[in-house]
Amino acid sequence: MASGRPSIRDIAQLAGVSVATVSRVINDNGRFSEETRKRVLKVIDESGYVANMAARSLRSSKSGNIGMIVPDISNDFFSSVALHVERELAGQGYSVFVCNSGNDAEREKNYFRTLTSKLVDGIICISGLNSLNADLLTSRIPVVCVDRYPDSARFVPRVSSDDVKASRMATEHLIDRGCRHILFMSSFTVDYGRRDREAGYREAHAAHGRAPKESDLIYITGAKPSMVEAEELITRYLDEHGCDFDGIFASSDHAAVGCLNALRTAGIDVPGQVRLVGYDDSVYSRLTSPQITSVQRHTDQLAARGCEALLTLLSGEVPPLETFVPTELVERESSR
Amino acid sequence: MASGRPSIRDIAQLAGVSVATVSRVINDNGRFSEETRKRVLKVIDESGYVANMAARSLRSSKSGNIGMIVPDISNDFFSSVALHVERELAGQGYSVFVCNSGNDAEREKNYFRTLTSKLVDGIICISGLNSLNADLLTSRIPVVCVDRYPDSARFVPRVSSDDVKASRMATEHLIDRGCRHILFMSSFTVDYGRRDREAGYREAHAAHGRAPKESDLIYITGAKPSMVEAEELITRYLDEHGCDFDGIFASSDHAAVGCLNALRTAGIDVPGQVRLVGYDDSVYSRLTSPQITSVQRHTDQLAARGCEALLTLLSGEVPPLETFVPTELVERESSR
DNA sequence: ATGAAAGCGCTAACAA
DNA sequence: TTGTTAGCGCTTTCAT
Asked: From the list B53, B75, B138, which residue is nearest A119 (CB)?
């Protein structure tokens, strides 16, 4: 212990045993007498010894670290998933790296390199980028996709909401409430082309013998925050078509709030003239007035199932390729 | 490269040089011919070699990792700081561990152990726990406190808003608006006893020759989410005193929203009868109606200054002990 | 300009 | 039950 932290050798010396014995005690691995155990543990405690994970990793090729890639940790939904992922994983002795990809392929690629270099045992990835695919193939690290996943990565275990079903339910809720003309406000851009939510919206229409017009589907470009853009898009729609609709299904709460703002500005009553449903059941949906009906996706369960799948992978077993976490529609004022 | 990833030895072999030379090229450290450099880099590129950080850490006692301790990453304010911290640090080649302490001393202590074990080069800590002190002392890891810090850790570099000043400004804003009787709704519990925001509230009163009554200061216990508790506390106050006040300074937006809900339920108009100011300028303050006047604290700058201080520390220099990030009052409908 | 070799702290195989 | 030792991949003297 010349300087810095004590090493396993210092402990061995102080306890009058070999380093191997100390290692065995620490890892509760192999045989040793009760007396030895006590003595070693005592020395460890007194000296404030903490194992050097770099050395351990080097030896065992396991770091006890997990990488978590999210588009933006400051986003309500992702940070909530992150909280639960970290909780879950910390409970299993893992530490979690956060990586903000910003939906940028280049950065995502870099994170994969860095995480590989740091020997992470696994990666939990929230990404819809198809470019992710290449990274996944080259890295041999166990990866689980949560929430969204690239179309091209069909072989990666994934945990998500059943967005098609949830969106269909949300749309049917509006139909049940008497809506005759329902707009779809998409909130996704980039590669995330699966459009499950749009599919659900279409399914609901089909099931009721309806067919949405092209102009009923409104797409955000991603140039601005979706709340802002949704507001602009609805305002523009109103300019062009007038208020010829009586329902909006927005595929995110951000977008829903934008819609609400546009409607309020236009003097259109919600839910009186137009009923509105959002997605994610975030704080957003509870703070506005009227409060917004929204699809609760249970971030805690998404996280729990995601970690479960990853841990299964880490144990060498094979988790289900696809896991769905149930959703529920939380009815609030905006669709009364 | 028997199995798994290629090591520096494999690269050396393939390039027909020694491992030392490869190391020199990788780290651009020491002398080597241009031709050698090209050859090595070519092999590295073709083989997909990524350095093993465990080995590098073991040798150099540097991990390129930073720990970030926050009470709860799903909280709007913390996740926003975290986003910017990670951005900043990733730009400098560091990876960031997130650690959710939940304001729990025991968990915080464990995180310090784990992070020590994982050789993090530094820690950014958002914690008001006085127990933090002991951990700080035993770990020799450079630490910077952001936003809040324990009273006892006066020797740790810290970056925060000037909460006293900001709170004084917020309170004076209410006074300027004509408020005669202003309540203070605290939103802090646990060890975080500095009560800077309360101090600012008191200062403003003193500067105007006023003296708040004891019953004007309302404290949250932390038993429930502060939004809920604030609502209950204001409701109780109204039961006991009636609406004898015309202003509230809430030391967080969460609490402010709770206040707003209580007032709405009681049929009290904001800002007509009561003016309200919150703190943090979070999404909360923008979504409610009326929108809430709030103190913007610039999470990006808090993060930037925090990282700056930590990097200074890592370079062996001494950062200022205390750094203040400017705040500004964002005026909205609730205090018109 | 380059190579040989020691050693960072730890685990695990092998000995005793 | 315990000790000895090789070696994980890398950086860094010290030679050459």
From this structure: B53
The reply to whether B244 falls in a domain is yes
User: Quick count: other Cβ atoms within 10 Å of Cβ A145?
Assistant: 25
The closest nt to B20, taking CA to C1', is: C3
The integer distance in angstroms from the CA atom of A32 to the C1' atom of D8 is: 25
Residues A238, A306 share a domain: no
Statement: residue A46 has pLDDT above 50: yes
| CATH classification of the domain holding A38 | 1.10.260.40
For residues B282 and B119, the answer to whether their CB atoms sit within 8 Å is no
| pLDDT at position B335 over 80 | yes
Our CA-based measurement puts residue B50 at a distance from the nearest CA of chain A, in whole angstroms, of: 6
Q: Report which residue is nearest nucleotide D7 when distances run from CA to C1'.
A: A59
Q: Which residues contact A177 (CB under 8 A, 6 or more apart)?
A: A247, A271, A275, A335, A336
Asked, for residue B56, whether it belongs to a domain, the answer is no
For tokens 């290449």, name the residue: A134
pLDDT at A139 over 80: no
Question: Is residue A2, in this structure, part of any structural domain at all?
Answer: no
Phi-psi region of A177 (alpha: psi -120 to 50; beta: other; left: phi over 0): alpha
Q: Do residues B225 and B312 both lie within one domain?
A: no
CA pair distance A6, A46, nearest whole angstrom? 11
pTM of the model: 0.94
B57 contact residues in A (CB cutoff 8 A) = 54
Domain that holds residue B255: 163-297+330-335
- Domains in chain A: how many in total? 3
Chain centre distance of CA B110: 19
